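Example 3.
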Amino acid sequence: MALKIVKGSIDRMFDKNLQDLVRGIRNHKEDEAKYISTCIDEIKQELKQDNIAVKANAVCKLTYLQMLGYDVSWAAFNIVEVMSSSKFTYKRIGYLAASQCFHESTDVIMLTTNQIRKDLSSPNQYDTGVALTGLSCFVTPDLARDLANDIMTLMSHTKPYIRKKAVLIMYKVFLKYPESLRPAFPRLKEKLEDPDPGVQSAAVNVICELARRNPKNYLSLAPLFFKLMTSSTNNWVLIKIIKLFGALTPLEPRLGKKLIEPLTNLIHRIYLFFSQILHHLSAITLVCFSWLIAFLFFITVLISLSSGMPNHSASIQLCVQKLRILIEDSDQNLKYLGLLAMSKILKTHPKSVQSHKDLILQCLDDKDESIRLRALDLLYGMVSKKNLMEIVKKLMLHVDKAEGTTYRDELLTKIIDICSQSNYQYITNFEWYISILVELTRLEGTRHGHLIASQMLDVAIRVKAIRVFAVAQMATLLDNAHMLTGNTQRNGICEVLYAAAWICGEFSEHLENPMETLEAMLRPKVATLPGHIQAVYVQNAAKLFATVLKSQEGNTDSTTAQEASQLMIDRLPLFVQSANLEVQERASCILQLVKYIQKLQQKDVEVSEEVCALFAGELNPVAPKAQKKVPIPDGLDLDAWINEPPSESESEDEQPKAIFSKEEPKHSRPRHTEVDEKELARRREARKQEQANNPFYIKASPSSQKVYQETPGVEHIPVVQIDLSVPLKVPGLPMSDQYVKLEEERRQKERAEKKKKDKKKRKEKRSGRGKKHDSGPESEEDITPAHMVDIVTEEMPENALPSDDDERDPADPHKALDIDLDKPLADSEKLPVRSHRAAEVLKSPAEDEEGENVSSLEPKKKSSKEKREKKKDKDKDRKVKMLFDRRLLRLISVMLTFIFLFYSFDRKAYDIQGNLQDGSQVVVSVIFENKCDSFLKSMEFNVLDSLNSKLQRPEGSGPHDSLTIPFQLPPGVSNEARFVFTVQSIIMPQKLKGTLTFIVKNEESSTHEKLDFKLHFTCTSYLITTPCYSDAFAKLLESGDLKSSSIRLEGVNMPFHHLLARICFHHHFSVVERIDSCASMYSRSIQGHHVCLLVKITVSVDAKCDEPTLLGNVLDEIKQTFSQC
Amino acid sequence: MRFMLLFSRQGKLRLQKWYTATAERDKKKMVRELMQTVLARKPKMCSFLEWRDLKIVYKRYASLYFCCAIEEQDNELITLEIIHRFVELLDKYFGSVCELDIIFNFEKAYFILDEFLMGGEIQDTSKKSVLKAIEQADLLQERPRGDYFSNSASTHCS
């Protein structure tokens, strides 16, 4: 064995190590691939050896090759071998290789579970650390489930190095195994207050990451983060927390108010931090901008904070002006950051940014694409009815100039985004928009043909007034289709033809010359278009055909109609031969139909009506989510079998069928219930009735005017006829410009008309109100749309479910982490503790059976849970409020402990001391400790005086006035206050009732709270420890003035000196003399009563005092002290 | 942070760290695409760019490009600082680092990165504690290598 090792190590000396490999690769620049393939062969040999050192060296080289892009997945098992080496040197290399090469589908990962678990619990912290680091790169759902509990334990490891890593990796575990979040969360939260700053910052990182995705679940942590923000010294942590608050404030606007102050205190620190970063950017001049950068960072946060406070618009205005300086700077990084911050402001304060349009447009000319893209983002939010055309015109210029298709495509999508935003809100002239779309079709090599097409369809369908124009434009497009067919790839510009054909077919009644268009649609070149477009062509050719027939109806000369059918019959066979099934099917159907029609035509039969009936009715747009929102009717169970499920003992040849029907329910597609015709009719009738009665139902009838309601008296403004003499049929000529001009003229004319009207009005009214319309720049409202636009709303199913849809991608891993963290943990949620996987799998079916056995219990539980969930949904908007109420509850519970402190007679809470100088005064010092998260202020202390004891109040105040406590209490702070009481008789214990009133100030508001308490004045508290000499003591006892009494302390078994110490401490006695098993003690009351005790080891107390009542009470109290222990 | 790449002016990858599991083929494609985009940019241009659904923050140090892919909500400046810290760490560890250091000791560079960032999050903001952890782990690594050849050393150590 030893020989083998030695041999191995000698071999190793001749092996290539990593350095040799790297050097070799550098020396073989010309034939790198060949050299590496020989290296890989060598590595394969090395991996076959037993020596782990050789193996590790080989794996290290493989890791390097992997980086160069060579496939090393074949060595996965060897990597695992090296990982499991007991030596740190090799383990480190193994884990590094694993973290670089493994991914979720690497199958050997399964083998690593136990090895990783072993390393996690290794006594060497670097073993654990290396395992955690590796795991963070290749953790799979299985690993996460199996190791979650181990990692959770590591979060409380003694070494901060491990704790830090364990906390960070938990985030990855949560993503892969969301069930672990709830059980692990309390511990994670604990780590926010870890003494080690590294662990703390790790915890902040993880929670901030989690909260950023699902902020509402973390609202309850706001006070904790608030505390961290004010106490943390780590700038990185600070920035994370501030960003987190940025995400939380929109959910709880009251937070914003509270944050302003600490944030203003922090701005200087953040500024220094950013100036340091800018300094690293190695531009000294940049540093002078660091104020701005800090500013900028705060803006991004403050924006969300200030949304609730309208007064901030002035400071926002200032910010924007400062940002302008940044954007105008020559440094590109600053420019970029400035634009980025602008876009954040734009979201909430669009007005203040809009004035810098010139600057933004200027940035569009920048050489740097990143900056241009940022500027584009800004433009999106800056448009208004007034400037839309101008901005889009600028963008169109850029489209022409832009080099590189990616940027041009970006411009294209932005133009469409800008125009179509919020339901075409800013478009006043749809003819202009259609011509813009048509112009965009001339872009070469764009990938967004589909987008343009869908816009065309959308506008043509939803804006009824534009159809005439749209159809004319589309007919031109179809006529010039050859210009677009160059690029036939999917999503290329030819997609536009899909829209063009459909629009021309569907709204063919508006076509000037349907015959011409029909001819254009049936050209042989069409056969080169993608299949789905051809299919639309064929179908819409049929629609056009119907229109042609209709237009010829009543015409005695039937040649045109016959020409049309002949054209169809001539051209359609081309499509019948199409390889595309859809095209073929449609073409042959229509061909047969046309042949039949032609026969009828020859017999002079009127057919147009029948043919038109084929395409009667209007198609309305359907909202994209309509299908999802169809409510499931009562009594329809989508999971139930419609027919009896096939029995399993069917003959073999029926098997496939059985499989098919079995699979079906998985899709859970809404099935059509079998409803007879009558029922359907009845339902339809009822629905119509309901819609008619429902004032909120938006009918698709042309009379409804949904848009531009803000336009005053839109009906009274004469609709300007657009002169269609604009040369429509010249392709390649930008028409949109002409529309811009036309629109300008129109607006001017309108303005003039309006002015006239206004003047008239003013003459009539003569009141000052007319002033508002006085000249000046036209405001948004003044611009009226070119024609009455009726944007048809998308159809929704009746009684659609309320919009609770989740916009987020269902594949988003963070969605699974949307978990309520405030619910108490159920037993079933505990993390799987280490156990063998195989055993678990075996167990589960058995468990299932058990589950069935106790099924009588099960449904009940479930239903109550469901109910709870339902309720939660209902109270969604009240949830935030409840959250705060809960916090209040916690506050009250804290207060209860406060009260408890009083009751329990804890000296820490208050102390009563007699005042020797004045026999009738007692000083009560009370320590107030604020244990809640809120600020306590305006505390007032009051006690209901008794005949015997009175609270000393300042002169001039009444006997029931309360005393103001001269301090306020921030969370977690304690302070002491003293109160003086006047006592007449001290021989009896007393209880005084009192109240403490204070104001609790937290995020949302301040509330007035009251706390009742009792002050217990014991007789002991009137005693004052006074030293006494044994001879004086003896004299006192001999005097004979003292009355005696004695007690026995039951069940006390403590050392004698403890007993004495206790009496001294609790009851203010001093030891006079101690002789073996007995001791004499002395104390004096504030009114001069002597109290003498003789305590024996047999635990009996003989006492003498000149006041028997006092003595009795003191002895009772002593007895009580000892009965408590 | 999604991933970090180090590549040279000539478009040779020097270091790659992926914080989300990605298939090998996708990795290669992304690296190639990103290197092209970044290398095509002129030196005066800004350090940020949008790429797919990610934001790319890069900075050039001598002949090496340090390039980080971050998500929409992450802060660009902070990412630049992370890059800078990493460079400083490498500098401290190797003593005025150059590209060759990273090429020949690429595993060390990874170890440093792993101590600095984990799962795409900053692990320790203090340079000192990162270097300390590396040094101690290195000590641990060197020691067994020593006793591998001389048994006497191992008895002392254990």
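Chain A touches chain B through 76 residues (CB under 8 Å). The longest helix of chain A spans residues 736-765.
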